[in-house]
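Hi L.,

As promised, Pentatricopeptide repeat-containing protein:
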Amino acid sequence: MIAGYVNVGQNDQALKLFEEMRNAGEHPDEVTMLSLLSACSQLGDLETGKSLHFSIFQAGLLTEAFQFIDKMNVEPNGIIWRTLLGACALHGNIEIGKRATERLMKLRRDESGDYVLLSNMYAAVGEWGGFEKVRQVMDDYGVWKEPGYSIVEPDNKAVIKLLSRSRSSHVPES
């Protein structure tokens, strides 16, 4: 029923029915959970989406999630594949992460965060060859991650410390 609501764009109804389901003590299956994630994505409901994301992937349903997304009646968007990739990174599931990345790369190749998630996943499990390969693909496609930085204002003078380069530079006040 929830998947049906989502498929016809009645995302609010899907979330309402889910709440009723939870109040009745019922537990959703993976199809329902992924449908709800899609509803949250379409509604821009980040908080509910985060909660559902955690529940799905904490339960170890990454393979089921991939299969469901891959067979959805509507074409999954980058947000859906990126959500699965993030869950794979969180749980160190490189195999499903690689498959999600393949699907994601068919949709977009210019999002540095997608590559960074996958490369960090490889690094977390010590697969440095995979890490280097992902970084090389980024270079090949001209994708780069903007360096992180923090701004500190001692004595009313802004200083930017580039985290990726471990050096500081003074920034003129505006």
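The longest helix spans residues 30-43.

Thanks again for sending the construct details.

K.
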